[in-house]
Write a structure and sequence with these properties.
The protein is α/β, with parallel strands linked by helices and 268 residues long. The protein is built from 7 helices and 14 strands. The longest helix is centred in the first third of the chain and has 11 residues. It starts with 5 loop residues before the first strand and ends with a strand.
């Protein structure tokens, strides 16, 4: 199959024979692995890695009989990610063995994230990263959402994250900022209420070193920030009322002054 560029495997047991077959797919660029299992010691028995793919998607539960930790490390050992550009995974633990091997990564998408020093040290080293997406982030109480240094992620252009991660915007050239599709919770899996931090986190998202053209924000941000002054080049604006990380108030106004010439405004 010399013309095969994309391969997705779901609920598949990968033995030595199948892995050797995958390794022969010279044109392979995308590999998706969902709820897969490897035969024991497959990494030691197949010394050759897969072709150098550019996109990898991982999604499995901890019910694998190989053990989740072994599965993560096996993928890192058998998949050639030296030229990987796009990486998505259900949980951050699935990519931790892989990320140090991905100097060319430009897009990272994670559904379930546990905020740890190791995670942020690793993400912070990805100099080429332009897109960071985190849908559900667990942050321990009384700790900062992230530990990125001011010099990390110099190429970041797109951010999808909970509102509390707005400080990632500061002095980075973001043009697309989405702070409504991500949710922060604590170690008990309860949504973190951020109303007391609204002034601080709403100020941070205005400090991109570029001029954002697309914003997706909680209503609380819009009600505080002078948009016409801060975002003169804004083209697309989505405002969400009732984000899970803020206390919903029924007396919040539902009309907007419309003073900026946005090409698209959505309010809900």
């Amino acid at each position: 199959m010399p013309n095969l560029h994309q391969l997705s495997l779901s609920n598949v047991f990968i033995d030595v024979h199948l892995l050797k077959t995958i390794c022969k797919l010279k044109g392979l660029r995308f590999l998706g692995l969902t709820n897969i299992e490897f035969s024991p010691n497959v990494a030691e028995r197949v010394l050759k890695k897969t072709p150098s793919i550019t996109s990898l998607q991982l999604d499995w539960s901890s019910s694998s009989n190989a053990g989740e930790e072994n599965l993560d490390s096996t993928v890192a050992r058998v998949v050639n990610v030296a030229n990987l550009q796009k990486l998505s995974a259900a949980r951050c633990a699935q990519v931790m063995p892989i990320l140090p091997q991905t100097p060319t990564l430009v897009e990272l998408s994670l559904k379930l994230v546990e905020s740890t020093d190791d995670l942020w040290n690793t993400i912070g080293s990805l100099r080429a990263l332009t897109t960071l997406e985190m849908m559900s982030v667990t942050v321990r109480r009384a700790t900062a959402p992230h530990q990125l240094t001011t010099s990390s992620l110099p190429s970041l252009r797109r951010l999808i994250a909970p509102p509390s991660f707005s400080s990632i915007v500061v002095n980075r050239p973001l043009s697309y900022i989405n702070l409504i599709d991500g949710i922060q919770s604590d170690e008990t899996k309860q949504s973190t209420h951020l109303s007391s931090q609204i002034s601080e986190i709403s100020e941070s998202f205005t400090r991109s070193s570029a001029d954002p053209t697309s914003l997706l924000i909680p209503f609380e941000f819009y009600s505080i920030v002078p948009f016409c002054e801060k975002f003169p080049d804004l083209q697309n604006l989505t405002i969400m009322n009732g984000h899970p990380n803020f206390t919903f108030s029924s007396d919040q106004p539902n009309d907007y002054d419309g003073c900026c010439p946005f090409k698209s405004v959505s309010c809900y």
